[in-house]
Write a structure and sequence with these properties.
The active site is at 309 (nucleophile), 362 (proton donor). With 628 residues, this protein is of the alpha/beta class. The chain has 15 helices and 28 strands. A hairpin with a 2-residue loop joins strand 22 and strand 23 (550-557). The radius of gyration is 27 Å and the shape is elongated.
Length: 628
Amino acid sequence: MDSPALSEFDLHLFAEGRHWHIYNVLGAHVCRNAGVEGVRFAVWAPHAKAVSVIGEFNDWDSGTHPMSLHHGFGVWSCFIPEIGTGTLYKFAITTEAGRQLLKTDPYGQAFELRPATAAVVTERGHFCWNDGDWLSRRGHWNWQDSPISIYEVHAASWRHHGSGRWLTYRELADQLIPYVLELGFTHIELLPVTEHPLDESWGYQTTGYYAPTSRFGTPDDLRYLVDQCHQHNIGVILDWVPGHFPTDEHALALFDGSALYEHEDPRQGRHQDWGTLIYNYGRHEVRNFLIGSALFWLDAFHIDGLRVDAVASMLYLNYSRKEGEWLPNIHGGNENLEAIDFLRELNQVCQSRFPGTLVCAEESTSWPRVTRPPEIGGLGFNLKWNMGWMHDTLDYLKQDPVYRQYHHDKLTFGLVYAFTENFLLPLSHDEVVHGKGSLINKMNGDEWQQRASLRTLFTYMYAYPGAKLLFMGGEFGQRREWSESRELDWSLLSYPEHQGLRTLVQDLNGLYRREVSLHGDCFRPQGFEWIDCHDSPQSVISFLRTAKGETSVIVVNFTPIPRHRYRIGLPQGGIWREIFNSDSRYYGGSNLGNPFPMPTDEQPWMNRNWSLELTLPPLGAIILRPAP
């Protein structure tokens, strides 16, 4: 099929920032011109004096294949015959000042392995997807009443090949999927696999917004991983970074000699913390570039959701800046009005075009209505990371149990705001790097108490309202702080105590998926009710989770002292049973619990008509439900 030229319609949509298939227009695309096979190249560089395509096919000579300017749109294009898939290329851009820049393609869909930076011509449409049933179900998925438990993975360090190299996308499919299936997670979240030049950035300093990194294979290899996940009923979420980009000369920075993608004024355009550049969200073509990237992953790779990194840094003009280091908006405030509009449009377009996909915000402040619709003043995200819950809970568990009674508010305060957003509870990679230590080493006490506390933390998280996320290694009590340069310490699973932790996570996922009371109504206040939140002297909390007529009771003892004959009020009488105990011997605990059956007493307690005396295990959590 002949398709050498860019249409006026495509260019107009791009100029308006509304071309949702821009990845099929800009960049490099194999096509035919007058019956001749070749590649059409197109790039946005409105301030360039001249642009040409260079590559191995012309000995990287900038004078051989000049591009033509589409006046009024700033887009340059050309057709080069007799080249195709696998061709390496760059753009040679002559600036208005006469300087020549060698740039990679912002819309490139594959790149060389770092440190090389050339883009690679690819061709879509040949991968044979087998996930039609999954996509059909996803389109009608009621995610707000479904279990969502996410296993967060850094592909380069989850596990290495026996030779010490990274696993490929296909090897990850063969090894990661069975592991996640066995543990019972519903989703995998990949730290950014968009192309990036620096391994140590973990992918968060992206240069290829339309390209999976070549570190682990080809684009079709990543498609294979996603397809296999879907065939095994596992969703895939991709970490995505529209908040900033690196200053590497070969990439987006000063792309055509001008501040094209970024702001020219460093008070608006430079992240002081990260040494990166901030997108100019007020420019239509930049917004189109970013939203097009989001849609590309949902379309071309069947990704099930995006986790948007560092949203707070996008929302605030004075983010991590002192007075005089930032410029206020037109109303004199610190809100980035253009970023707000961008995020709202991003969420509306993604969710309307790909129903059932999730867009999650890593937003660390109290910005209101992050997960509420734009028409009522919200940003439109599906989920927001609950950073407050994470910080409060980990701070609480760092305390010596003797003093926890004085920090009881860290357990109870989160329920004041728990239903103001659709929250996801994150125990993520950010909490196990940069000197923060591993999850288990954050727990107070000796090794036994640390393991017991981690078991209690996981049980508390799965019982608490909200979706769940756990970074790899936490499930078996990785003791060393995570490093991107080595694989997880899998040898720990040869020790029963670490295997017990992993079994606990496996059973929690199973329980969470089976018990509608634990995953239904988790974003609505009717799904939660305190039984007792006031027992700070004994550091015990108890609460109800309810949904669709089903009820679970959760009781957590945050001290190493067993509590015998601990009475709690219950919502109904009859026989109750303990369906989960974090202190079970199967998980490495002391096996202190409550045998079946447990008949209630008609003794009013805690403003309820029925009550029950329980044995609370040390540093343990139990879950009860009425016996059928």
